[in-house]
Amino acid sequence: MRFAILGISHETNTFSKVPTDYAQFLASDILRGQEIVDTFGESLYTIAGYLQAAKELGFEAVPLMWAQTGPLATITRDAYDRLTTEMFGMLRDQGPWDGVLIANHGAAVSEEYPDMDAAFAEQVRAIVGPGVPIGGTLDMHGNVSRRLVEATDVTMVWRTNPHLDPKPRSRKCAELLYRMAKGEIHPVQWIETPPLVVNIVRQFTGEEPMRGLVADCVAANERPGILDTSIAEGYPWADVPQMGMAWIAIADGDMDAARDAAQWMAKRAWEKRAELNKPVSSVREALETAVRHYRGPRPLGEVDEVPADGSPLAAPAVSADDKAARHGPIVLMDVGDNIGGGGAADSTFILAEAQRLGITSLLQTLYDPGCVAACVAAGVGTEITLDVGAKTDDMHGRPVRVTGTVRTITDGSWEDPGVTHGGIRFFHAGPSVRLDTTDGHTLLLTTKRTGNTSRYQMYSAGIHPETYRIVVAKGVVSPRPAYQPIAGEVILVNTPGVTTADLSYFTYQRRRRPQYPFEPEATYPA
């Protein structure tokens, strides 16, 4: 049996001002054939699970083409057309196929297709025909639509956030598709999409309420005849009708069983809708809390264990009782500049407030190619004065003037062999500079927008985050596998920006109405 692998993975922030054109994909990843295997074969990402299933089950996996870039604005018509013309040409020319495995994100929007992932699956279906099994494994932040489910035979979603289980979830997806191709099972799918949004600051699956909802998902999977269950948290910064939470149940030939399981999970979540949308700290509150709670540095090399088994509840959690006794930096999650959600990567709100409060020993990254170039020109050991950050748009603060010494210059590439959000192993931030400022801070300036999902980003520049009082991580949940093991405490900070937790900041034109929490009177079932 021959199974094709292909996909376009993009998390589209329709409120971003940085368009996702073809050049963005070229600068990130457009992989073909063996390049896909070389990049992901030894990783923990979705494609690794597909390849693992092929090896263990004995079918031939044929990676065709895969493209991705970081979360930015809507994918241009030209970019989508150029990618799919080549990709779908491969699918037509190299067939016939016994199955197709899609490696999309699940929250993509293009100028042509507001529901790009559904359109992509429909186009695959049109090429291979109605009798060829099609499956896909989506990021937990996918905005999953009924159209997408109807175009596929098996649609599954990761169950952990931070995303620790892409590989085992996609391995299972491939196995179900393989069993379908052999005629052993007959998957039928039901998707339930109540009018519900969960705020990004409540999406950590290691804490309630999401921890309980994932437990419900696992329990529903144990029902007779159920092959798989999924919960999608959704991606709130996409102004599209499918934005919001979704539940999928797959049964072996029994649509009633699939519908009952999906509706049971959704109703349980609806009862927690208020808890799913509680606010978090402001910038000043977070910094003041960090100063009060800091207990001193953590010894180098001393980290807490991060579960690596990919189990649904494996994301690490810290109890309230533990926080006060722990040494290590206070990690501030910069919610409004969530790079994994389309953030500019150059927000300065926390840095500027730390300067105003006279707080020292703060570490953070900033995307600023111009300042990197200035530091490289100045050279290692040189003291330089710069206006750093806040150059992408007017949503992420103002440039902050700093004076500091250029300590290191690197090519911005590193490898993390451990557990990372999304299972990524190889990282590229472009030429990067460590700048130690005269007011006691360390800034890692980069030339590419790169999330803080690996401590090796810091180690590669000679920085030991364990020794700082405050570490700013641009993200919400994705930095936890990297930084929670060394943190004294993790605090979510509701900063302004293109990924702010305050959804009232954005003007939605195309989302569903009514929808909780935008319309508190929304009901479910309708």
Outline the structure in words.
The protein is of the alpha/beta class and 526 residues long. The protein has two domains: 2-277, Rossmann fold, CATH 3.40.50; 283-501, no CATH class. It is built from 15 helices and 19 strands. It has helices at 22-27, 34-40, 46-57, 77-93, 116-128, 146-151, 166-181, 210-220, 255-270, 283-293, 320-323, 349-357, 369-378, 456-459, 480-483, and strands spanning 2-9, 29-32, 60-68, 99-102, 134-138, 154-157, 187-192, 226-232, 246-252, 330-334, 362-367, 383-388, 400-410, 413-415, 426-428, 432-437, 442-446, 470-473, 489-493. Strands 12-13-16-17-11-18-10-19 form an eight-stranded mixed beta sheet. It starts with a strand and ends in a 33-residue tail after the last strand.
Mean pLDDT: 94
Shape label: globular
The biggest beta sheet reads: 8 strands, mixed
Q: Outline the low-pLDDT stretches.
A: 308-323
Please write the CATH class name of the largest domain.
Alpha Beta
Q: What share of the residues does DSSP label as strand, in percent?
A: 15-25%
> What's the alpha carbon Rg, rounded to whole Å?
23 Å
Number of helices: 15
Fraction of residues in H or I helices:
25-40%
CATH architecture of the largest domain: 3-Layer(aba) Sandwich
Strand order of the largest sheet: 12-13-16-17-11-18-10-19
Number of structural units classed as domains: 2
